[in-house]
Every structure is written in C-alpha cells, then in structure tokens.
Specification:
This protein is of the alpha+beta class. Among the domains are: 123 residues, no CATH class; 105 residues; 109 residues, Immunoglobulin-like (Sandwich), CATH 2.60.40. It contains three helices and 27 strands. The strands form five sheets. Strands 24-26-22-20-17-16-23-25 form an eight-stranded mixed beta sheet, with no helix packed on it. Helix 1 runs antiparallel to helix 2. It is flat. The two termini are 73 Å apart.
Length: 538
C-alpha cells in the first residue's frame, strides 16, 4: 500500500502531466464525540506514465492530515490544494444527479412549451382584437367608417355583413380569451414541477462548475483502473448517544431504546456513507503533565481582609475557609466502536437521529419518600446493567406506562454496574413535614444558650384505593465534635441505618393501606459548651 501525506511545502508539478478529472465521494467515516475521520473513494482509468489527478472537494480547506492510499501498482504524489477546478455543468454527475438534472431540463422544457403556446394564443387574441376594433370603426360611420349605399336594399346587405362579421370576430375573440384563462393553472402546475425538480437536484448537492479541490500526481507503468482512498480528519462531524427509557410500572420491565444523534456541519455532500461511531477521541492529550521542581519558600504573612474581620465580628463565628475545588477525571483505557447499517445520509447542519437497538431489563421498583424536601413520593427503578456492554452518557427521555415523565441525562453505566432511574412523582403518596417545637420553617437556628430541643414530625399518606409500599428516607442529625452532644429519639426504629453508606441517613419501609397515613416523630436534644453558637437546619 502506498501512502502520501498532505505537505505544507508545495512541490512543482511536471508540465507534461495529463489532467484527469475524477469524482471522489465520501464512502466511509468514523465519527468521534468531536470530529471524525472521513474517507473519500475515487476509481479512475490511468494511462501509462504520469498524470495529474484533479479531485473536486467542497471541504478541501477543512481537511486535516490528509492521507492517500491505493491498492494498485501506482505511485502517488502528495495531495496539494487547488483553489478552483472548473467543471462542465453535470460533467461529474452521479446517476441520481444526472436523473435529477434531466427532470429539471424536462420541467423547464414543459414550462417553456406552455409559455410558447400562450404566446401564440396571445398573438391570435391581439389579431382578433384588431379585427373587432376595425369592424366597430366601420360601423360607426364618419370619415373612417364604411360608405353607406343609397339603395335601401344594398344598405341592408352592408349592415347585415358588418353585423355578421362583428359577431364572428367577437365570438372567436371570446373563445380565445376563455382558452387563455386555462393557461394560468397549467403555468402554475408547470412552475411547481420545476421548483420541485430544482429542489430535488439541490438536495443532492451536485458539484458546482467551479470547485475547490486537490491535485495529485499519479504515476503508473501500465494503463490500468485503480481505486484511491483519501482519508482525512474533519472537525465538522460529531455524535452522541440518545435514549428513550420505557418503564412498565406493573411488571417492572424497563426498555432502553438506544439511538445515535449525529451532526455534520461541513460543506460536503453526505450520502449513503458507511458509518462507524467510536468513543475514542484522537484529540486527547497523549503525554502526561510535566513535573518540575517544587521548592518551599517563606513569605511575609498576609493580614486578614477587613471585610472578613467585620463579618466575623458581626456573626460571632470563626472565618469560613472555602476548600479548593476538586476536579475528578475518569479515563477509560478502552474505546468502543459501533458499525452502523444501513449507510447514512446527512443534511448539513441538521442533526439526524438514527435508531440503534433496544435493551431490556427486569427492574426492582420502589416508591421513595423524602418528606423533608418533597410533597409526594417518587417512583424509582433499580437494577443492574447485564447487557454485556456499557451504557454511554447521553440525553434521555423517560416514559412511564406510555406517558412522558421528563428528560434527563444518563451518566456512564459500566457493564455489570448497578443502575437506578427515577420515573416521576407518585401523586397519591402525599408527604408532610412539621417542626412542632418552633415555627422557624427552613431557616437555620442560631442560639446562644447551650441546650436545644427540637421535635420534628414527618409522614406519608396513601390517598389511593390500593395498598402501597413506600421507603421513607430521612437524614437525622449527628455530631462530629466532642463538645457537641446530639441525642436523637425516634417514635419508630428505622429499618435501614446509614443508607448507601451515608451516616445518619435512615430509611423506613412502610406498608400503607388505602387511605392510611403513617407518621414518625423525632426528638433531638443538643448540648454544647457555653460561649459557642449552634448552626443547624433540622
């Protein structure tokens, strides 16, 4: 296999080279999350010797790292950009484009034929109008009128002749005018056909008569037919997964319809392209960060900001130090590629959603109640990704029993990993939260004494006509300081403590009959040393 890279230095070309004009359509592409690798393919009949291959390409200026390959026994020079390649109109049309161009020519001819027919009819109408005007002038007498004979019998003949001829001409004129009115519909229909044919041709995006492109010197020892692939990186191609999640709340069956959203924003025509969608990113950094010396130095202390001192004095609190931001980056050593069938046709700037497949899972359903924050419980579906492959990040639309619930974003779900999705509120499971000790609502409580007691009540009520199971979740207070004592007394012991490893987060698994309400009360006693302030949101 012979390869040639696009060089920045343009080499002079032999003057005796024969020019061969050829078309190279996009045949295959690998799309990445940003950008992609595009492959054009051209088949050309080469004579023996050296020829200059001219290939029109709308996106030649956008192509990066262009590489040419051929399986034939030929020598390929480096591809060089050409600002303008002149083509005969339709000279490099595909069969579809040639057929569309023929339809345009036929529609233009049909419209012209009707216009010509109308012009002939207009000429006949003009002639009849002239005849009628002359007959009317004759019948009016006077200097331009007809000479009237003195014999009454002859006068009758003249008048009869004028009347008869006027009637004939007027009748013929009216018939022609009636015939012309029909031309309006015929012309509009022909013009509509022409507009449609032009739109169909434009949608195919045939090559223009003046095109940018590339030129390549090709040397062949014998006359032969060769196929050349032109591969390059394009910044105008991108894709991302797209999902629709369908939950059956009766059976717990979850269907995840996977789709591919692909966008091309470049100038090239994109028809029937063999697509591969990859999670690789060729633009990622390949090398680690540089590590340099890390000396330790002393510096003069910086005095506290006056604003910080004023705020601290007013609030009676120690200065608040914000932690440094932590950025986590997850890097996968493996990339996935999806070959897509059938070939893909794209319109520039118009995202296309391609159907992919449907994954099915058996999920465990749970009504999750968070009375401190929500007014109703929410339906959760939990399970494990047993599809054998990861579910990639992407936009998703959630459906519950056929109804749209919400749009959301799916994070990466590795193969075999646990997964949980929320499918909207369960309106008949009403929640309530009350602070029975003080009417402070959601505000933080600042106190100067060293003891505090709070009584909190939270509940869930099933207003439906069927029994329901609910998991009620509440974060109870705890102390991480030796001088602060927190005692929590619950009217009902929790079924799960430290839910999902979160300290103090409790869960109660409740069975509620139709119309039943279950209520839990929490008494919190707090004590701390004199002189300290308590900040707590119950």
């Amino acid at each position: 296999m012979r390869r040639a890279l696009l060089l920045l230095v343009l080499l002079p070309l032999p003057a005796q080279a024969d020019d061969l004009l050829a078309r190279a359509d996009i045949a295959a592409a690998t799309a990445y999350a940003a950008g992609g690798e595009v492959t054009r393919r051209v088949t050309v009949d080469l004579p023996a010797g050296t020829s200059r291959l001219l290939i029109p390409m709308r996106d030649a200026a956008w192509a990066e790292r262009m590489t040419l390959t051929s399986e034939g026994d030929v020598t390929l020079g480096p591809p060089r950009p050409v600002e303008t390649i002149t083509l005969a109109e339709g000279g490099l049309d595909t069969p579809d484009e040639a057929a569309a161009r023929a339809r345009v020519s036929g529609a233009e001819a049909a419209l012209q034929a009707i216009q010509d027919e109308q012009a002939v009819l207009d000429a006949r109408i003009a002639g009849l109008e002239s005849q009628l005007a002359y007959l009317r002038a004759l019948s009016q007498g006077g200097p331009d009128g007809a000479a009237m004979p003195g014999d009454p019998a002859a006068l009758a003949q003249v008048l009869a002749g004028l009347g008869s001829e006027t009637t004939r001409v007027a009748t013929a004129l009216q018939q022609e005018r009636i015939a012309r009115r029909a031309f309006a519909d015929r012309l509009e229909a022909a013009a509509t056909d022409l507009r449609g044919a032009l739109a169909d041709l434009a949608a195919l995006r045939p090559l223009d008569t003046d095109m940018p492109g590339i030129e390549v010197m090709v040397t062949s020892e014998v006359a032969q037919t060769v196929t050349v692939d032109i591969a390059y990186l394009s910044p105008d191609l991108s894709w991302q997964p797209d999902y629709a999640l369908f939950l059956d709340s009766e059976t717990g069956s979850l269907g995840i319809e996977r789709r591919i959203s692909v966008t091309y924003d470049g100038p090239a025509a994109w028809r029937d392209v063999a697509m591969v969608f990859s999670t690789a990113d060729p633009r990622r950094r390949a090398a680690p960060s540089h590590v340099g010396p890390a000396p330790v130095r002393l510096a003069e202390p910086t005095p506290p900001s006056p604003m910080v001192r004023a705020e601290t004095a007013d609030m009676g609190m120690a200065p608040v130090v914000m932690p440094e931001p932590v950025v986590e980056m997850q890097v996968s050593g493996l990339s996935l590629s999806y070959s897509y069938q059938p070939p893909v046709t794209l319109q520039t700037g118009q995202p296309a959603t391609l159907p992919f497949d449907m994954l099915r899972f058996d999920m465990t359903l749970e009504n999750r109640a968070v009375p401190r924050s929500d007014a109703t419980a929410y339906l959760l579906a939990a399970g494990r990704n047993m599809s054998g492959e990861p579910i990639l990040p992407g936009e998703a639309v959630l459906y519950r029993d056929g109804d749209v619930v919400a749009g959301t974003w799916l994070d990466l779900i590795a193969a075999g990993a646990e997964m949980e999705f929320a499918f909207g509120p369960v309106d008949h499971l009403a929640l309530d939260w009350q602070d029975l000790s003080r009417d402070t609502g959601d505000r933080g409580v600042f106190v100067t004494s060293n003891e505090e007691r709070r009584v909190i009540a939270f509940s869930v009520q099933n207003t439906s006509s069927e029994a329901e199971t609910v998991r009620l979740v509440y974060a109870t207070p705890f102390s991480e300081q030796e001088d602060l004592t927190v005692d929590v007394d619950l009217s009902r012991a929790a079924d799960v403590t430290d839910l999902d490893g979160d300290r103090g987060v409790l869960a109660w698994d409740l069975e509620l009959q139709p119309g039943e309400e279950q209520r839990i009360e929490m008494v919190v006693d707090l004590s701390w040393p004199e002189g300290s302030d308590l900040v707590w949101w119950p």
